[in-house]
Amino acid sequence: MARVVVDVMLKPEILDPQGQAVANALPRLDVTDVTSVRIGRRIELEFSGDADLDRVREIADKLLANPVIEDFTIHAGEQVKA
Amino acid sequence: MARVVVDVMLKPEILDPQGQAVANALPRLDVTDVTSVRIGRRIELEFSGDADLDRVREIADKLLANPVIEDFTIHAGEQVKA
């Protein structure tokens, strides 16, 4: 079994109101040295065999991310004991 | 500037309908070797100075994750050029 992680984040130029809300709440926890909060999605895919990364790229592009406003990165390699 | 990433995922025993929906859609892309899809959040925090990881743990616990149903992991170290 192989695990592939796809991280999907809003492109830097796209406003992130969810992250902004968290940033605005931080002073309530006395945290004042955080300059930016961005919130995205982390998707963990588990494959029964080896993962085909070209396939993962297609899945991310068509199903997991909206390429107009989001970027994704793929992390492979974590071997999972069955 | 330091960047800290907090990954928040549902605990393994909690049902993930969003991931299930993606898993159910995969055969439409002719992908049949994915056994599990789990979807969580990736939060990127940027600090003006060095990041205090105990502080980040407190932020994650109180603000970013719901410890009843979610686990979080903290990745530090990415140095960001200002």
UniProtKB/TrEMBL annotation, chains A, B:
Query: What is its quaternary makeup?
Result: Part of the FGAM synthase complex composed of 1 PurL, 1 PurQ and 2 PurS subunits.
Q: Name any one GO molecular function.
A: phosphoribosylformylglycinamidine synthase activity
SUPFAM superfamilies xref list? PurS-like
Role of this protein: Part of the phosphoribosylformylglycinamidine synthase complex involved in the purines biosynthetic pathway. Catalyzes the ATP-dependent conversion of formylglycinamide ribonucleotide (FGAR) and glutamine to yield formylglycinamidine ribonucleotide (FGAM) and glutamate. The FGAM synthase complex is composed of three subunits. PurQ produces an ammonia molecule by converting glutamine to glutamate. PurL transfers the ammonia molecule to FGAR to form FGAM in an ATP-dependent manner.
> Has the keyword Ligase been applied to this entry?
yes
Subcellular location per the Swiss-Prot or TrEMBL entry: Cytoplasm
What is this protein identified as?
Phosphoribosylformylglycinamidine synthase subunit PurS
Q: Which reaction does it catalyse?
A: N(2)-formyl-N(1)-(5-phospho-beta-D-ribosyl)glycinamide + L-glutamine + ATP + H2O = 2-formamido-N(1)-(5-O-phospho-beta-D-ribosyl)acetamidine + L-glutamate + ADP + phosphate + H(+)
Gene3D superfamilies, A to Z: Phosphoribosylformylglycinamidine synthase subunit PurS
UniProt keywords, alphabetically: ATP-binding, Cytoplasm, Ligase, Nucleotide-binding, Purine biosynthesis
Pathway(s) of this molecule: Purine metabolism; IMP biosynthesis via de novo pathway; 5-amino-1-(5-phospho-D-ribosyl)imidazole from N(2)-formyl-N(1)-(5-phospho-D-ribosyl)glycinamide: step 1/2
What the record says about family reads: Belongs to the PurS family.
* EC number in record: 6.3.5.3
